[in-house]
Amino acid sequence: MTNHMKKLCEIFDGIIEERIRSRSSKVVEVCNDVLDSLLNINIGEATSELSRSEMVHLFLDLFVAGIDTTSSIIEWIIAELLRNPDKLTKVRKELCQTIGKGETIEESHIFKLPFLQAVVKETFRLHPPIPLLLPHKCDEPVNILGFNVPKNAQVLVNVWAMGRDPTIWKNPDMFAPERFLECDINYKGNNFELIPFGAGKRICPGLPLAHRTMHLMVASLLHNFEWNLADGLIPEQLNMDEQFGLTLKRVQPLRVQAISSA
Ligand code: HEM
């Protein structure tokens, strides 16, 4: 693990070095990305607000926080769709009607894909990538709905259990994306029954990026390939057991066959 982290730090440091060099060369390519913004506030190294090592570790944090979570939700989305072929057919039909054959999926298509968005929300409800969010500490004693939470208490929010609570959701164990077509609930932190990214001032800062990445990746995968379970498995045989950890992994990694639909 330490070796992997060291290797990642070296890669990030190399990218920073390359960008610094290209910025100081005559041909300046303006990327206007996070790295450029950090380098802009870092101009005049001696008085810099952020050291090179802090910059590398910031990228490491973003990488670690964004990779497992995004890949986990994408794996669960594909698994749920393969277990529920009628929903898979519905998403693919929506994609065909919205995006032409051979056309590249773009960010502007996402809002035109309500069923795909519902599939993503439904998967977050059942399989939130960080099932207990991150631990929080209570600054002041507080009473919430009759429960006293003392100062300094560590608070874990069980979003996994909230997603399966029958007092909140009808047929909570059923994969039914349609439930989100009939309501305005989203995961942006305003609807407390669905907060896989947290809520409030410590809400995941990667939410806007994750929202785009997930939809674009799933839409591209489903639009360009026909998907089947590997090893001749039928949908009912697919093992959907979850393994608890900081992120919610599948007990059995998903094995699939993808055939180009071009
Ligand atoms: C499906 C994708 C993702 C999910 C479900 C997710 C979920 C979360 C959750 C639950 C938290 C803790 C919120 C809390 O404290 O209550 C968090 C924090 C964080 N996430 Fe994400 N995240 C995702 C993607 C990303 C991406 C793509 C990035 C960055 C590129 C990112 C960066 C971070 C960072 C830096 C924090 C810590 C923020 C803080 O301490 O205030 N996340 N995320």
TrEMBL record:
Co-factor requirement: heme
Record's protein name: Geraniol 8-hydroxylase
Signal peptide: none
Keyword Zinc: no
Record-level Gene Ontology MF annotations: heme binding; iron ion binding; monooxygenase activity; oxidoreductase activity, acting on paired donors, with incorporation or reduction of molecular oxygen
Family assignment from sequence similarity: Belongs to the cytochrome P450 family.
Organism superkingdom: Eukaryota
Keywords: Heme, Iron, Metal-binding, Monooxygenase, Oxidoreductase
Cited InterPro entries: Cyt_P450, Cyt_P450_CS, Cyt_P450_E_grp-I, Cyt_P450_sf
Binding site for heme: C204
